[in-house]
């Protein structure tokens, strides 16, 4: 007998028919003799509808009250799914985060889980009940409801799997696994049988939206056996684990991200510590910076370029302009018509030719590279926004279609 | 400085505009220097929509899961209203029942409040925050959500007022007080300035739907100063209290109830204990019996008639037929085309002419009385369903319009 955590997203529970479909998957796992903990998101558009109601009343509502409001969506899902399980003869109990004892810090709307109590859930499992836990939510030390940020239900599921030392954590989605590329861009993208935590992390942070980044970090830290699979079709998904047998292609996939914008500080004085000053100012303003490039100096000035999320572009410009006297630069140049294409693969660094192969594919497609950034298992290039899909196809073909 | 509990029903918070209207009433009370605890029901049709979703999935869902589902409605209301108060500059915090510590027994869907913790609410009031509490809900000793039954938010409000020894408990509704009669039937019905707990109890149980019966019982037990008033118009409502200066009419109001049906057991054997047997069987089947009449025997048999709620009529018939051999009667006769008209007044019993005056009014209107039932402060008659509104008008006119 195993303990299995199963997570279903909002579209998987959006109506009665889908809820019964989910109940059948759960029932099958339960009837095979497993203990089952289920994590659910809010139904379909429920969260957006609640946000709409709140915005109509107060677009600047406190995050504490937003969390109180939004957490109702997941509670509705677990109660309804428990009723569906009861209907098909499977004993079940739904629990909100405060009932489980999912403890978090107090950062409303983006809380981190600190501890999960065992008693209630173990007690229910021991009575052979399926335990349905409202995802996305937690409770802080004052007894206030918190939420875990976008995609937080993935994090709830992995945290429960880690806490209860589950044998497997299954993330059910509307795709059937992790692909070498977005199949909407590259129709012959291949489904991966397995991927490492690190590759998944890089893919997730480079724009692949299947798994929430934080959930993968947590899975890696606690060695949680993850599987991403389809709630619609019954077939094997993609396993996420520590080590994966390498394929000859060396890379796990190609990702794109068109939500980035480039900022260049032109004509910076050559005084020491200026890079530190720039990025500490941006950090204080809660602006995340991704790719950073510092050009070789020309005379007594240099340029620093970096990318930020498009939504942060205005704020970043403002912060820099406000500190022009301190930072001493000539001007700020921005470009929000760019995109990022990345290749990710755990075996990349032991194979020097991988980055070159990517650049070759782009060269052959006549695509100009504006900036390059690499990590141990990733190579990213910034290119013109209009070239992104063509670049993805060219790079994918180079790695996966050539003999 | 006083502590005031204010309760607003579902129609009072059904949309953004109404929520801001409620927020203004609360803000005014708060700005006058009072501590304010607010109890809200679920918005408009939210509860019915949630019940609809549940029924689509499982019409026989466990009450435990129904409570888990339905309690989200009130949580949404308090969070949204807190946002509205924030918007107009009034510090506020919303709390679900588990956060307050509203403890109940474990009778899901019809729980009784046992205790209310003071700490959290006092702490928030001491910080000069308006405390918004989700009505209708509580939590049992296992940490499961319970609900208090129809109209349970009234009970939440009165229980909080009792527990915190509030100076006043205001129940805001879409009518502006308690009337001598339903103004839709008797256009010149008068609003009462005040009414006693007992009169209110009788009126509530005889069909006046302004206040939830249980909330009035609780208010009487703990001497809570109740006031029923309009959330739409700013004018005095009706006070509910221990003693009320009697008006010369002797009665507080006229109520009607058309949800009753009459059951007659015809030709019962004259053996002792048969009445006990009949009503203990019905009690075991959870069927509430109201008016009971036992006829004088004819020969060696007698008849017993009683009324039940229309929804229980079929069950009652079934229980009786199933036990025909034990009870030994000839046949069961039922009539669901009847209605009940009652007059209620604390001074009634000290004034022998009151009942007679009611019967006179009915006689003058040519209305035939089928059954009569009285309590210390009430006289009820059962009449033909089609005569009910005419009877109400006749009786009301007799007591309130004649000089």
From TrEMBL, chains A, B:
GO cellular component entries: cytosol
A biological process from GO: diaminopimelate biosynthetic process
Residues involved in ATP binding: 7-10, 173-174, 179, 184
UniProt keyword annotations, A-Z: Amino-acid biosynthesis, ATP-binding, Diaminopimelate biosynthesis, Kinase, Lysine biosynthesis, Nucleotide-binding, Transferase
Catalytic activity: L-aspartate + ATP = 4-phospho-L-aspartate + ADP
Stored CDD domains: AAK_AKii-LysC-BS, ACT_AK-LysC-DapG-like_2, ACT_AKii-LysC-BS-like_1
UniProt domain ACT: residue ranges: 263-337, 343-403
Pathway where this protein functions: Amino-acid biosynthesis; L-methionine biosynthesis via de novo pathway; L-homoserine from L-aspartate: step 1/3; Amino-acid biosynthesis; L-lysine biosynthesis via DAP pathway; (S)-tetrahydrodipicolinate from L-aspartate: step 1/4; Amino-acid biosynthesis; L-threonine biosynthesis; L-threonine from L-aspartate: step 1/5
InterPro entries, per database record: AceGlu_kinase-like_sf (IPR036393), ACT-like_dom_sf (IPR045865), ACT_Aspartokinase (IPR054352), ACT_dom (IPR002912), AKii-LysC-BS (IPR041740), Asp/Glu/Uridylate_kinase (IPR001048), Asp_kin_monofn (IPR005260), Asp_kinase (IPR001341)
GO MF assignments: aspartate kinase activity; ATP binding
Superkingdom of origin organism: Bacteria
PANTHER family named in the record: ASPARTATE KINASE, ASPARTOKINASE
Family listed: Belongs to the aspartokinase family.
Record-given protein name: Aspartokinase
């Amino acid at each position: 007998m195993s303990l299995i955590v199963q997570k279903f997203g909002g579209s998987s529970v959006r109506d009665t028919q889908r809820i019964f479909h989910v109940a059948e998957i759960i029932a099958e796992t339960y009837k095979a003799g497993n203990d089952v903990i289920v994590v659910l998101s809010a139904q379909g558009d429920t969260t957006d509808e609640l946000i709409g109601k709140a915005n109509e009343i107060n677009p600047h509502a406190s995050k504490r009250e937003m969390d109180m409001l939004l957490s109702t969506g997941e509670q509705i899902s677990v109660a309804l799914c428990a009723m569906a399980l009861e209907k098909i003869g499977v004993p079940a109990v739904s629990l909100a985060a405060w009932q489980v004892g999912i403890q978090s810090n107090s950062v409303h709307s983006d809380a981190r889980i600190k501890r999960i109590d065992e008693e209630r859930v173990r007690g229910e499992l021991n009575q052979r009940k399926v335990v349905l836990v409202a995802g996305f939510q937690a409770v802080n030390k004052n007894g206030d409801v918190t939420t875990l940020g976008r995609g937080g239900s993935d994090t709830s599921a992995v945290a429960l799997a880690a806490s209860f030392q589950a044998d497997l954590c299954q993330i059910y989605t509307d795709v059937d696994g992790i692909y070498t590329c977005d199949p909407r861009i590259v129709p012959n993208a291949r489904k991966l049988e397995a991927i490492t935590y690190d590759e998944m992390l890089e893919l997730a942070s480079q724009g692949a939206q299947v798994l929430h980044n934080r959930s993968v970090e947590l899975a890696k830290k606690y060695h949680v056996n993850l599987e991403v699979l389809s709630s619609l079709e019954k077939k094997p998904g993609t396993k996420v684990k520590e080590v994966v047998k390498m394929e000859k292609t060396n890379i796990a996939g190609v990702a794109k991200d068109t939500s980035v914008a480039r900022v260049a500080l032109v004509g910076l004085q050559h005084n020491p510590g200026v890079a530190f000053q720039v990025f500490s100012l941006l950090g204080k303003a809660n602006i995340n910076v991704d790719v950073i490039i510092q050009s070789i100096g020309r005379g007594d000035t240099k340029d620093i370029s970096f990318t930020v999320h498009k939504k942060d572009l205005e704020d970043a410009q403002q912060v820099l302009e406000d500190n022009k006297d301190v930072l001493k630069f000539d001007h700020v140049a921005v470009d929000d018509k760019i995109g990022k294409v990345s290749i990710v693969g755990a075996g990349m660094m032991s194979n020097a030719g991988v980055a070159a192969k990517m650049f070759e594919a782009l060269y052959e497609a006549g695509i100009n590279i504006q900036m390059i950034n690499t990590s141990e298992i990733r190579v990213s290039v910034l290119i013109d926004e209009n070239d992104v899909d063509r670049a993805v196809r060219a790079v994918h073909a180079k790695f996966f279609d050539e003999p």
